[in-house]
Amino acid sequence: MGIRKKTNKNPPVLSHEFVIQNHADIVSCVAMVFLLGLIFEVTSKFAVLFITVQYNVTISTTGPEETAVNHFHHGIKDLATIFFYMLVAIIMHAIIQEYVLDKINRKKHFSKTKHSKFNESGQLSAFYLFSFGWGASILLSENFLSNPVTLWEGYPHTLMPFQMKFYFICQLGYWLHSLPELYFQKTKKEDIPRQLVYISLYLVHIAGAYILNLNRLGLVLLVLHYFVELLFHISRLIYFSNENRQTGFTIWAVLFVLGRLLTLSLSVLTVGFGLANAENQGFDWAAGNFNVLFIRITVLAAICLTQAFMMWKFINFQLRRWREHAQAQSLKKKQVPSKSKSKKDKANGVNGVNSHGADSPRARKEKSS
């Protein structure tokens, strides 16, 4: 993310600089149009598509007291809801940037490189913390952790509770908002490919789990991944405040490797064994059943390739850190002997002057003779 320079001059209306400086206000006005649409009966049906979660299914539970439980499935109308919450994510991004991160940047006076990385870690830390807490609460309430068999038992999982469906809607909205943010934040050209790669990976995996009705497995893997990423970005924020505090990176490195192993284990267990041995085999688009060999292999291949790519990036990152640390240590070792050598030379020079100089007793004796 680049540094936005504030100037006293007002840019021309609808120019690039005008849109970048006022993008949060413009997006807020667009979001308010949808909210105001709820007031009028003519537009309320249209506005509801964007604001509320669609495809509600009411199921009556049998028991002593018959109760109605609301569940949701996915459909094409979810695109409108995702678009609205993408606007909300842009607004929240601007609020965190202006009222939290920019104030800290003014106090710390970071360099351009640190400024960009600090903004990135600050934004992602807030998102990962919120997403991890929300996702963990869903896992606990639905008992997915206490009973892992539910990850594949009863597939296809076409019906979701409200919290789970809204969670996936917000996740897709957030990662879609990262695309226009590349423009709004004036991201450097050399950083854009890296940003596009990890944004695309998030969108493909989250949308894949949502569409293929692997939402339970997707939720578990997201919570696990977000926890590890949260630790990394918090460690980086601490490092920027005090460069001697690097313990967090060591803990993150261990958890990162464990996270990759857990991700592969859960994926193989759910897709490779659980769904492969399930009774409900076959492809049925209407019923939401995608339990066929080709799709299972594709899902596992996508997960394995992504984990391998992340491990490759992780190894390169660690090698670069070790190389920089080794160079810093070698420079320190070179500086210490040179300083001690200069002190010795200076001391020898003084002794030479005292033993053979003009003011030495021997010199005075030779001079008088």
From TrEMBL:
Region (Disordered): 328-369
Stretches assigned to the TLC domain: 116-325
GO biological process terms held by the UniProt record: protein insertion into ER membrane; SRP-dependent cotranslational protein targeting to membrane, translocation
InterPro entries: TLC-dom (IPR006634), Translocation_assoc_membrane (IPR016447)
Protein's membrane topology: Multi-pass membrane protein
GO cellular component: endoplasmic reticulum membrane
Alphabetical UniProt keywords: Endoplasmic reticulum, Membrane, Protein transport, Translocation, Transmembrane, Transmembrane helix, Transport
Basic residues biased stretches: 331-344
Annotated PANTHER family: TRANSLOCATING CHAIN-ASSOCIATED MEMBRANE PROTEIN 1, TRANSLOCATION ASSOCIATED MEMBRANE PROTEIN
Family classification: Belongs to the TRAM family.
Protein name, as recorded: Translocating chain-associated membrane protein
Organism: Xyrichtys novacula (Pearly razorfish)
